[in-house]
From TrEMBL:
Domain EAL span(s) in chain numbering: 24-278
Name of the protein this chain belongs to: EAL domain-containing protein
Taxonomic superkingdom: Bacteria
Length: 279
């Protein structure tokens, strides 16, 4: 009997594996088509200075408008895009999209705010990343200060000369660099003194229930202190409640991104809700 059970278990596993790889196959096929047809949209999420209520910048977050499945969130296709290398054209699409939007605002006489874009480590670690970004900014006649990039710790884990050079080139361009999901990677903090990082984004997992969960509170407080000593900006990500906000304000961390101030939304909604505000 146990033998039969074992075989059944194996078959179930096998069947679900087969279905999963079939789904991935179709998703990859669709993703390739979607890139050709630009079936993507950028949502913007505000970052607010909680002391003044001002929107200081925004993060651009990709969504896929699938013709049959509807809006797909990045968590459901970015991993596949990374695996298949399709993250490269996706990233290219997003950077252009953001530049186009900034130019549209400038033409309309709307004061610009920096927009930040997530850069996959695959792209960041390609040689010529900074040069390509410079070409893009030149094409749109945009100053580097309007584009910010978010990289994860694994992008700068290796202390290689060309990565240092990329970071220097970005600095030269005026493009600010943030470490995304800070605290969740495996790298040491050593890179913080080697590389000239402008700021960190404290991951949502540390912010959640910060006022009642003392481990989160001590880790977050330490991260904020460290960043302040190193003269880096700190953005707290995933702030949802008043309690979380209050705790962060007590630690002098007031650059906030999270549902408390606004979810990622369409650019039209973003303009209406966060750009045209009393200043
Ligand atoms: P991320 O860069 O860490 O972006 C923050 C994620 O947290 C976003 O999820 C955002 O919607 C979510 N978030 C923000 N505030 C809150 C909050 O208060 N509560 C909760 N529950 N969630 C909050 P999203 O848009 O699903 O993006 C997921 C991840 O996909 C991003 O994480 C980023 O790693 C990746 N991603 C998104 N767009 C791009 C892109 O254009 N290129 C690349 N390479 N990756 C992207
Ligand atoms: Mg990000
Ligand atoms: Mg993050
Ligand atoms: Mg991330």
């Amino acid at each position: 009997q146990s033998k039969e059970l074992g075989r059944n278990t194996y078959q179930i596993y096998d069947e679900s594996m087969r279905r999963k790889s079939e789904q991935l196959f179709f998703l990859e096929r669709d993703l390739r088509k979607a890139i050709l047809k630009s079936e993507f949209i950028a949502h913007f999420q505000p970052r607010v200075n909680a002391l003044t209520g001002e929107t200081i910048s925004a993060e651009a977050l990709i969504r896929w408008e699938h013709p049959v499945m509807g809006l797909i969130s990045p968590g459901d296709f970015i991993p596949l895009a990374e695996e298949t290398g399709l993250i490269i054209p996706l990233g290219k699409w997003m950077k252009r999209k953001v530049c186009e939007q900034l130019v549209a605002w400038r033409k309309a006489g709307i004061p610009l705010i920096p927009i930040s874009v997530n850069i996959s480590s695959q792209r960041f670690l390609q040689k010529g990343f900074a040069k390509d970004l410079q070409n893009l900014l030149d094409e749109f006649q945009l100053e580097g200060k309007w584009l910010e990039i978010e990289i994860t710790e694994n992008s700068i884990m290796k202390n290689e000369e060309y990565i240092l050079q990329t970071l220097r080139d970005l600095k030269e361009l005026g493009v600010k660099i943030y470490i995304d999901d800070f605290g969740t990677g495996y790298s040491s903090f050593n890179y913080l003194k080697t590389f000239n990082i402008d700021g960190i984004k404290i991951d949502r997992s540390f912010i959640q229930n910060i006022s009642s969960k003392s481990e989160n509170a001590s880790i977050t407080t330490a991260m904020i202190k460290m960043a302040q000593h190193l003269k880096m900006d700190v953005i707290a990500e995933g702030v949802e409640t008043k309690e979380e906000l209050m705790y962060l304000l007590e630690q002098n961390c007031y650059h906030i991104q999270g549902y408390y101030f606004g979810k990622p939304c369409s650019i039209e909604e973003f303009e209406a809700q966060f750009l045209f505000q009393k200043s």
